[in-house]
């Protein structure tokens, strides 16, 4: 065989050229030390920051710290499987997650692995987890509403599509509840929802997923879970992963919304990682770039310009405060990044004002521009009025004599705050919200007892749906509330007769009998001493058989720690006018369950009146009548049910008859 020398030379040269590109010594490294969710790796000299690496056990990690002689890797999985000396390969790509329709309706971990047992996520598209947010030129101002379905929010701190609105408050103040309601309310819209659970108990998240499923919201929702028991790296990455999945829809020209529940736990996870990586601690031991950690996440929420498809991503980050401390490090950071905040206050929450939004310091800096015109028109001054009412209320508690105008503002305020209460998972249509708030701010509720506001509202809305459908539809379609519509609504409200004879409906003159006849079991709830005066919920099972405008009936069921207490309350708009009433009815003995008759005459101006009823079994039942100088004029008859055996009081049935009529000048007009 003969060789040509130059041919050989060229082959050798080719081989030498290829030699360098085939063998890349930078790709593989070895674990020097491992623990607490991080590993130090020697040898990955060419790895990029944020690049994925793979351990020999198949566990993935993320290059986090690029140091002179080693690489700090955060381990996205079980670090207990990894040992010193194990091989680590860099994967040449940044961390990414599957995106697209395949993730909708699924429960997944931050790496896109299914947690719901419904098989793998089959998607041919992936998105890198860390993305640079769109620049201003690619955006347009927020101009469409994202209806939360919550009266207090849609009217006073409206959220627009593409906005970032912070939900902030202590633990157990209804932060998650607001976001879940918002997700449920997107049912018939084109908004895809993403809920990122960071550092929460798995049982909490499971309950929440169950709720979403029950309400039919899982069809368009993805839940990304990095629970409290998951390693800190996963908790840190979860919000970015969720954001990438949500962003996908925004870039497709669609609408998405994402809840980060919550960023304080993500910050704690990040602090843990940074400290383990020996990054220098700063304020509250958080690393210096904790602000950047949240800002680069929240900046990704946007309303894209029409040239870019006009899609939007709305972000609802949640931050948990400790003892209402909004000026701590993480809360101030996130407040300054977002476009407004909804501040939930524990004392409002415990007083039954739910959602417990503090209207004074809650704002939405951009959403007002995106509000439905009808809502914008009728709810304009509501926030300031309510904030003023709260201050006035605090002042009025000092017990000073109030002039008529102040009293009127107080009365209006009590009814408006009552109207803004809203139960869990009951999002409301925006037209219903408009009608309710209009009725309240226009004084249609002024003559309704505070306790009856909720029932009145429900009946009023049913009336509009059943009998005034064209008007309801007109407001829904036009989204406007012009003077003509206002006149039509006023006329309809005048026509509306509230149920049970309550409110402004027609009444027989001179009727003075109010009867409580049904049985009501006491609500078993331990109350803190300071809450003992709190008003219980008005039970809807009690009926006013007939009654004058002056007498309305409400029932309190409450149980003090040392025993049960059951009370019937008569509301007297003409508070302070002495009158005598006869209370007839029965009370059940706690001990032997016998019903005992009551026939008791009381003067309501007396501050306290008591009577004892002796039962044949030897038990004594005490009845207390108290005229508790309440501005709303509440007169309470209670049976503080202390039983020697610690048994709960049963029930009391009362029939209240007026012996004397109230003075005429106190009739409200
Ligand atoms: N509007 C509401 N009406 C009645 N209960 C509510 C309301 N909002 C929240 N809750 C209840 O309060 C509790 C705490 O709410 P949650 O949203 O979990 O608080 P957080 O997320 O702030 O810790 C839950 O048990 C929830 O059912
Ligand atoms: Mg929560």
Report the radius of gyration as a whole number of Å: 32 Å
Please give the alpha-carbon distance between the first and last residues. 122 Å
Helix content: 25-40%
% residues in beta strands: 15-25%
Shape designation: elongated
Tell me the CATH topology of the largest domain.
Rossmann fold
Helix tally equals 16
Spatial strand sequence of the major β-sheet: 8-12-11-13-14-10-15-16
CATH first level of the largest domain: Alpha Beta
Q: Please indicate the count of domains.
A: 4
Bound small molecules, by name, code or SMILES, are: adenosine-5'-diphosphate, magnesium ion
Number of strands: 25
User: What's the oligomerization state?
Assistant: single chain
CATH H level, superfamily name of the largest domain? P-loop containing nucleotide triphosphate hydrolases
Instruction: Please give the CATH architecture of the largest domain.
Output: 3-Layer(aba) Sandwich
Low-confidence stretches: 501-576, 628-634, 640-653, 655-669
Major sheet characteristics: 8 strands, mixed
Average pLDDT score: 80
**Secondary structural class:** alpha+beta
């Amino acid at each position: 065989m003969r060789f040509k020398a130059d041919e050989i030379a060229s082959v050798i040269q080719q081989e030498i050229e290829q030699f360098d590109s085939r063998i890349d010594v930078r790709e593989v490294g070895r674990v020097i030390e491992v623990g607490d969710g991080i590993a130090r790796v020697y040898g990955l000299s060419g790895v990029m920051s944020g690049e994925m690496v793979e351990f020999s056990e198949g566990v993935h990690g993320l290059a986090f710290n690029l140091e002179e002689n080693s690489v700090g890797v955060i381990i996205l999985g079980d670090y207990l499987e990894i040992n010193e000396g194990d091989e680590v390969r860099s994967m040449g790509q940044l961390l990414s997650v599957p995106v697209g329709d395949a993730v909708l309706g699924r429960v997944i971990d931050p790496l896109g692995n299914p947690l719901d047992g419904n098989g793998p996520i089959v998607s041919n598209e992936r998105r890198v987890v860390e993305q640079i947010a769109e620049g201003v030129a690619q955006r347009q101002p927020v101009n469409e509403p994202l209806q939360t379905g919550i009266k207090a929010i849609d009217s006073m701190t409206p959220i627009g599509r593409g906005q970032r609105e912070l939900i902030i408050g202590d633990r157990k103040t209804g932060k998650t509840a607001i976001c879940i309601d918002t997700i449920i309310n997107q049912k018939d819209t084109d908004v895809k929802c993403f809920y990122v659970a960071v550092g929460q108990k798995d049982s909490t998240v499971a309950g929440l997923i169950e709720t979403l499923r029950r309400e039919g919201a899982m069809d368009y929702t993805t839940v990304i879970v990095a629970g409290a028991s998951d390693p800190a790296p996963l908790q840190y990455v979860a919000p970015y992963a969720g954001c990438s999945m949500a962003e996908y829809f925004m870039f497709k020209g669609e609408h998405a919304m994402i809840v980060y529940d919550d960023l304080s736990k993500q910050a704690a996870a990040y602090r843990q990682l940074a400290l383990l990586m020996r990054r220098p601690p700063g304020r509250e031991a958080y690393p210096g770039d904790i602000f950047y950690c949240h800002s680069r996440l929240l900046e990704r929420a946007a309303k894209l310009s029409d040239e870019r498809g006009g899609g939007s991503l709305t972000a609802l980050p949640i931050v948990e405060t400790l003892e209402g401390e909004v000026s701590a490090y993480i809360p101030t950071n996130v407040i300054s990044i977002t476009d407004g905040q909804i501040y939930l206050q524990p004392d409002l929450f415990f007083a039954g004002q739910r959602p417990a939004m503090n209207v004074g310091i809650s704002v939405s800096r951009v959403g007002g521009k995106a509000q439905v015109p009808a809502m914008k028109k009728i709810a304009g001054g509501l926030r300031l009025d309510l904030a003023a009412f709260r201050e006035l209320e605090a002042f009025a508690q000092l017990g000073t004599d109030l002039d008529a105008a102040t009293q009127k503002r107080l009365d209006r305020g009590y009814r408006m705050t009552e109207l803004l209460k809203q139960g869990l998972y009951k999002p409301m249509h925006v037209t219903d919200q408009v009608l309710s708030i209009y009725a309240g701010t226009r004084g249609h509720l002024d003559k309704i007892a505070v306790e009856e506001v909720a029932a009145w509202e429900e009946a009023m809305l049913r009336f509009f749906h059943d009998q005034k459908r064209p008007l309801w539809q007109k407001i829904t379609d036009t989204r406007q509330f012009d003077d003509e519509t206002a006149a039509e609504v006023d006329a309809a409200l005048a026509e509306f007769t509230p149920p049970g004879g309550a409110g402004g409906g027609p009444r027989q003159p001179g009727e003075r009998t109010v009867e409580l006849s049904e049985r009501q079991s006491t609500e078993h709830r331990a109350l803190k001493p300071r809450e003992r005066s709190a008003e219980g919920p008005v039970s809807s099972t009690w009926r006013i058989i007939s009654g004058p405008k002056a007498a309305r009936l409400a029932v309190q069921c409450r149980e003090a720690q040392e025993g049960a207490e059951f009370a019937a309350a008569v509301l007297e708009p003409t508070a302070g006018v002495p009158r005598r009433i006869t209370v007839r009815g029965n009370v059940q003995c706690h001990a032997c369950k016998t019903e005992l008759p009551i026939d008791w005459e009381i003067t309501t101006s007396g501050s306290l009146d008591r009577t004892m009823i002796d039962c044949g079994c030897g038990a004594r039942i005490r009845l207390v009548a108290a005229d508790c100088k309440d501005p709303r004029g509440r007169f309470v008859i209670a049976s503080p049910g202390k039983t020697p055996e610690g048994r709960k009081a049963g029930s009391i049935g009362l029939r209240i008859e007026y012996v004397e009529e109230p003075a005429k000048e106190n009739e409200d007009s």
